[in-house]
C-alpha cells in the first residue's frame, strides 16, 4: 500500500483539485441547470400524465355510470313499451271476442227469427192444406151421402133436429 501512496506529489494533488473544482464549476454553470431543468420538466410531465390518467379514469367511471344509467333507462322504456304492447294486444283480442260474440248473438237471433217466420209460414201453409183437404173430403163425403134421395132427407132432418136443440 505504501507504493500507492508512496509517491505523493503536492503539486499534482493541487492541480487535480483545481481541475476537479473547475469541472464542478463548469458542470454547475453549463450542464447542471439544463440537467435539473430536464429532470424537473420530466417530473412535471410525469405528474401531468398521472393527473391526466387519474382524470381519464374518473371520466371513464363517470361515462360507465352514465352508460349504465342510460342502459337502465332504455331497459325501463323497453319494458314499458312491451307492457303497453301486451295491454294493447289483450284489449284488441278482448274487443275482437266481444265483437264476435255480439255478431254471433245477432246472427243467432236473426236465425231464430227466420226459423220462427218459416215455422209460422209452414204452419199457415199446413193449416191451409189441411182445411183444403178437409173441405175436399167433406165435399166428397157429402156428394156420396147425398147421392140418393133417402140419404138427403135423413141428413136434412138430422140437421133440423140439431138446430132446434141449440
Automatic annotation (TrEMBL):
Signal peptide: none annotated. Pfam families: ATP-synt_B. One of its GO terms (molecular function) is proton-transporting ATP synthase activity, rotational mechanism. CDD domains: ATP-synt_Fo_b. Residues 46-91 form a coiled coil. Keywords: ATP synthesis, Cell membrane, CF(0), Coiled coil, Hydrogen ion transport, Ion transport, Membrane, Transmembrane, Transmembrane helix, Transport. The keyword Iron does not apply. The chain crosses the membrane at residues 6-27. GO terms for cellular component: endomembrane system; plasma membrane; proton-transporting ATP synthase complex. It is found in: Cell membrane; Endomembrane system. InterPro entries: ATP_synth_B-like_membr_sf, ATP_synth_b/b'su_bac/chlpt, ATP_synth_F0_bsu_bac, ATP_synthase_B_chain. It is a single-pass membrane protein. Component of the F(0) channel, it forms part of the peripheral stalk, linking F(1) to F(0). The b'-subunit is a diverged and duplicated form of b found in plants and photosynthetic bacteria. F-type ATPases have 2 components, F(1) - the catalytic core - and F(0) - the membrane proton channel. F(1) has five subunits: alpha(3), beta(3), gamma(1), delta(1), epsilon(1). F(0) has four main subunits: a(1), b(2) and c(10-14). The alpha and beta chains form an alternating ring which encloses part of the gamma chain. F(1) is attached to F(0) by a central stalk formed by the gamma and epsilon chains, while a peripheral stalk is formed by the delta and b chains. PANTHER family: ATP SYNTHASE SUBUNIT B (PTHR33445:SF1), ATP SYNTHASE SUBUNIT B', CHLOROPLASTIC (PTHR33445). Belongs to the ATPase B chain family. This is ATP synthase subunit b. It comes from Flavobacterium caeni. The gene is atpF.
